[in-house]
Design a protein that fits this description.
4 domains, alpha+beta, elongated, single chain, Dna Ligase, domain 1, Barwin-like endoglucanases
Length: 464
């Protein structure tokens, strides 16, 4: 499906024509002066069209522009869907967020503002519209949403139709799993709006989805739900080291390392707090107080490589690309500040993967995975997980660990990887004002454009 760059402007015609298309576009789509449907987001109107001598501008009757709630003067793309006899303007991406502050038009999203700025910059460069909005900003009956759109350096409120697709960046797990939210997502589907990254992933759901997948089993550590002393005893009899993790946790919060030793058992928490227990029931009582009724999992402890006693893991960002296929976007190694977790948010540091594989250890044998091997495992697990999980997902943060024998393990999957400016270092070292859009932002927008019916053509390889 071919699409062309354009900018729409309002006009007050003296004739019955509603829309003037560049004659080059008319020839490209084999159109003659006629009446057809014009669409932006979920809004459609019938319009009488003819050609004009303007090379890339579309002139629309002002009443038509107002009916579509189509902003004028912004770079867009246009495509003609012959099977529907419909001229579509887009791509139009909505980003669902929990909150924003419109009183600060330069930084309404707090620490996430650079991510939204980069998305808007990519959108402006390639043509299209991105609108950030909250759940309460949507009027389903009218088919409209009042959100923030960036023009120049400022984010301003704008009334637009419902978008062609929505990227979910809600931060509340509780709200996301509510019946009201399920009904909201269903309304998106009923309106043919693609809603991707449907919800946060529960660690147990991920494990359950992958444990029966033949290609994933070798990378899954042993795991059980922590429901009582029986499960605790079984895991600690099977493995010398076990990690207790919140089912819905993130950023390394709430993780407790448990070990069986000659004196009984040891529990260690990030920050250095350690407790010794002479018996399993004593350890169980201690964990009950710490977990405080929250859902926890028990995961096999692994002899992972590290640096000076600090564990290392590898965060691989896997996203759907311009063709709707999974691809690896980036990878970074993370070295923990302490001996429990390696999350950067908990004081860890980042290294290039190859550098980490060279510096970390110990190694028991000659088998050492390459960065390409880690990417291959992450890509395979993403495809399998997408097939096994209900819902629509387009990016996963895959956390992998490598043990001292060179085996690659899946540690965690995050369906909403961090988008703060310090989540990935700026390779160029440029200040934020001149920082280029991250590859992850570009790939996300490529996928959204594909969903909206504006696929970006692959770059032609130069001839040798």
């Amino acid at each position: 499906m071919s699409h062309v760059p354009t900018v729409v402007y309002p006009f007050q015609p003296e004739s019955e024509v509603d829309l003037y298309l560049p004659r080059g576009h008319m020839r490209k789509w084999k159109l003659t002066p006629t009446t057809l449907t014009v669409q932006f987001g979920n809004k459609t109107v019938r319009a009488r069209i003819t050609g004009s001598n303007r090379s890339s501008q579309c002139l629309l009757r002002k009443s038509l522009l107002d009916s579509l709630h189509l902003p004028a003067g912004l770079p867009l793309r246009a495509t003609y869907q012959a099977n529907r006899q419909t001229l579509v303007f887009g791509p139009y991406l909505g980003i669902l967020i929990s909150s924003y502050n419109a009183q600060y038009p330069r930084s309404p999203f707090g620490p996430l503002t650079p991510f939204f700025n980069e998305t808007a910059d990519v959108c402006r460069k390639r043509g299209g519209i991105v609108c950030a909005f909250r759940l309460q900003d949507v009027n389903w009956d009218a088919g409209l949403v009042r959100g923030l759109v960036r023009r120049g350096d400022l984010w301003r409120e704008k009334l637009l139709p419902l978008p062609q697709c929505i990227y979910n960046r809600l931060v509340s797990r509780r709200r996301e799993r509510s019946e009201w939210m399920a009904a909201w997502v269903q309304r998106c589907k009923n309106a043919n709006i693609s809603f991707f990254n449907e919800q946060f992933l529960n660690k147990w759901d991920v494990h359950s989805a992958l444990e029966n997948q033949e290609g994933a089993q070798a990378h899954l550590p042993g795991m059980m739900r922590y429901q009582g002393e029986e499960q605790l005893g079984e895991m600690l009899s099977r493995y010398r080291s076990v990690y207790a993790k919140p089912s819905n946790g993130s950023m390394g919060r709430g993780i407790i390392r448990l070990r069986r030793n000659q004196n009984g058992y040891e529990a260690a928490r990030p920050g250095g707090a350690r407790r010794q227990f002479a018996s399993l029931p004593a350890l169980h009582r201690y964990l009950q107080k710490l977990t405080n009724g929250k859902s926890y999992l028990l995961q096999q402890g692994l002899p992972l490589i590290g640096l000076q006693g600090r564990p290392a893991d590898f965060r691989v960002l896997v996203q759907k690309n311009r063709a709707g296929e999974w691809a690896v976007t980036s990878m970074v190694a993370r070295i923990g500040q302490n001996r429990i977790v390696s999350n950067v948010s908990r004081g860890g540091s980042m290294l290039a993967p190859l550098q980490a594989l060279r510096l970390c250890g110990p190694w028991h044998g000659n088998i050492r995975p390459s960065p390409q091997k880690l990417k291959s495992v992450a890509l395979k697990l993403s495809v399998l997980l997408d097939q096994a999980l209900p819902g629509h997902y387009a990016e996963f943060g895959i956390d992998l660990g490598v043990d001292v024998y060179g085996h690659v393990w899946l540690l965690e999957v995050n369906s909403k990887p961090s988008k703060t400016a310090n989540a990935v270092p700026n390779p160029s070292g440029a200040p934020e004002a001149t920082r280029k859009a991250r590859p992850s932002v570009i790939r996300m927008f490529d996928y959204a454009s594909w969903l909206c019916g504006f696929p970006r053509a692959a770059r032609k390889k130069p001839k040798r």
